[in-house]
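Message: I would love a firmer grasp of how sequence relates to backbone shape in proteins. Thank you; the sequence and its tokens follow:
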Amino acid sequence: MAPDVYDAIIVGGGPAGATAGLHLAQQGIQVVILDKAEFPRAKPCGGGLTYRLLARFPHLQDAIERLVLNRVDTIHFYAPDLSAVRYTYHEPLVLLIRRREFDAMLLEQCRRAGATVVTSARVNHLVVTQAGVEATTSHGETFRAKALIGADGANSLIAKQAGLRAQWPREHVVASLVAEIPQTVLDFQDDASISIVFGLSGLKGYGWVFPRQADVNLGILGLFSKEQDRSLRTVYEKFIETLKFQGKIAPSFIPTNIRGGIIPMNGVISQTQTERVLLCGDAAGFVNGLTGEGIYYAMVSGDLAAQTLVQAFRQKDFRASRLARYQRAWQTEIGAELTQSVQLQKRVFTNMRFANVLVRMVNKQECLKKVFTDYFMGKMTYRTLKRFLIGHFLPQYLKLRMMSMF
């Protein structure tokens, strides 16, 4: 039987926790990963990986490549009024995978590196002492270590019991509904492009169509609470009807096996670490506020949390002030773009007129199609986007102002 005393405990075996676990195990740190589920397990997610993930984690490239079901180079953006932008990139924009296979692969990498993985182990109690941490599961098992990483998702128990945040406020989360449908059932024809539909039926969010080898991932996310789940389902049904009207799916199709979840999309919490405990992934809000992209940011935060712990083990110092290196690290790498994504979300998700105008404006110029696609797919930072837009539109604006003076 595996010992219950480790160097580090990771609660949550998704992309954030598995990335942290792999890094720690490779550094010779005895780590245990605890997850409430059995793997492989289904996960309500679009399953799109951007190419910068491969650049950031090159050691995973071969393993990820074996899981890729489709490489898509064309994207359709639809405004709330269904005016559209279509752009084909010179290389694949996104890699489409299934999360159950992707997450299982990451955990297997951890096992091979020497990490202990315990599934069906829901952690329901955390104790932090001067000597270490204790995590107790619903089965009554207690695991002890010097430090702990909380990567247990949007409903993180670790975040709450470590005192880093309370329950997410209703207005800080979006609800999502996702279904994976066989292409034969949908009679789906366009497997070379993905579609993003903003603001359908007043939805403060968007819907997506991600085609893979044998199935299509159809989902929506929006600023709805659990109490409004029926409203979200109504929007999902409207989304399906719109796709039928556009001829993308069979008129007779009726969606089944729809799964839901919540995603924090109001930015990262103000403090992501305390004594002996660090938070990463959805537990801390590492999600792009405009696109809903979470996998990349989860893995970056997990990697940076693990790097911080490696230094803490070397110095035998797990105080909150020492672990604050983690906060500085993620703020430097991804902090600005996450903050700015929330600012853009508040404009695009809550202002249907702005979204309509934006799509029409982008559709008029090829260069705008490229930069808009670059930003949405994570190929361009907000700072670069803003610099481009100022350089592109300011001369035209100044010219019009000068002409109006004469």
